[in-house]
Structures are given as structure tokens and as C-alpha cells.
Amino acid sequence: MAKKRRSRAFKESSQIIDIEEVRRQRNQKRKDAYEKKKAKEKTPNVSERRAIKIVRHRLVYTAAFFLIAVLMGLTVYNLVSLSAAEQVELERQEALLKEQARLEEQLLQVNSEEYIEEQARTQLRMIKPGEKIYIVPENDNEEDKQDSEEENKDNTSKSVVPQ
What does residue 146 show for φ and ψ, rounded to 5 degrees? Predict the structure, then answer.
């Protein structure tokens, strides 16, 4: 059998101890100490000044996080819009290069002697020395009236016949 111990409070005294009462008191003390410890853990021992500082730091970190997130979002948006604009400009550049090629080809034609002579004869009604211009009607008498009105507006229907 284990050695029986007496409570410290009653070690030197010769009083009669009610063991059940002492156990209840001891359990109550332990329970109170446990609740005190638990309450202390719930409310950390932080001063008011320190608590304000912690809240301020959290706000600053949160604001910095959102600022970085917004800046990253704007950067991504700019990259996407620039990519779309680049695609549009590449298409425009391709169209301009096609037009440039067409205009260079037309320039080669315009600088040829045959083209210059043809334009001088049709648009400017120029003739070479010794040539005569004959105007040949294209339609009958009834249609001549309508055609004459059109010819007055646009003289391109007249043809030049060299001699």
C-alpha cells in the first residue's frame, strides 16, 4: 500500500482533517486556476498603445497589398490593350504596304509614254500636228437628244480618230 500523505496545511497540526472537504477545496482551487489561465489566454496581455500600433500596421499592410494588386491589374490591362492596339496597327501597316505597292505600280504606268499620250488625247483633247478629230455618234436620232445632254455633262463618249 502507498504511503499516505497529509496535506501541507495540516502537516504539523493535530487536527482531524476531513479528507473529502480538502479534496473539494483543492479541486475548486485547480478549477479556479484553470479558468483564470483560460481567461488570461483569451485576452492577451497587450497594452492599449501596442494594440493601436498592431491595428495601424494591419491597415498599412492591407492598403499596401491592395495598392500592389491594383497596380498589377492596371499593368495587365495595359499589356492587353497594347497587344490589341499592336494587332490593329499591324493590320493597318499591311493594308498601307499593299496600297503602296499598288501606287508604285500605277506610278510606273503613269510615267510611260503610252499612258501620257492616252490621257492627253482623252481628257485634254490634244492631237498631234496634222491630225483631225472626228466625233462619231453612237446612237440613233431619238437617243441623240438624250446623249447630247449627257455629252454636254461628260465628254468622255467622244472618240479621237487620228489621220
Answer: -65, -40
Between CA 139 and CA 151 the distance in angstroms is 12
Structure confidence by residue, pLDDT tens digits, 70-100: 999 999 999 999 999 999 999 999 999 999 9
Between CA 113 and CA 128 the distance in angstroms is 14
CB 135 within 8 A of CB 158: yes
- pTM, whole model, 2 decimals? 0.39
Cα separation, 161 vs 85, whole angstroms? 56
Spatial CA neighbour of 135 closest among 111, 106, 159: 159
105, 97 in Cβ contact below 8 A?
no
CA-CA distance, 87 to 33, in Å (whole number)?
Answer: 74
Which amino acid is present at 33? A
DSSP 3-state assignment of 107? helix
Measured CA to CA in angstroms, residue 48 lies from 5, 56, 62, 77, 90 at distances of 48, 12, 21, 43, 63
Q: Which residues contact 6 (CB under 8 A, 6 or more apart)?
A: 17
**Contact partners, residue 116, CB within 8 Å, separation at least 6:** 110
pLDDT-based confidence at residue 156 (cuts at 50, 70, 90): very low
Q: What is the DSSP letter of 7?
A: -
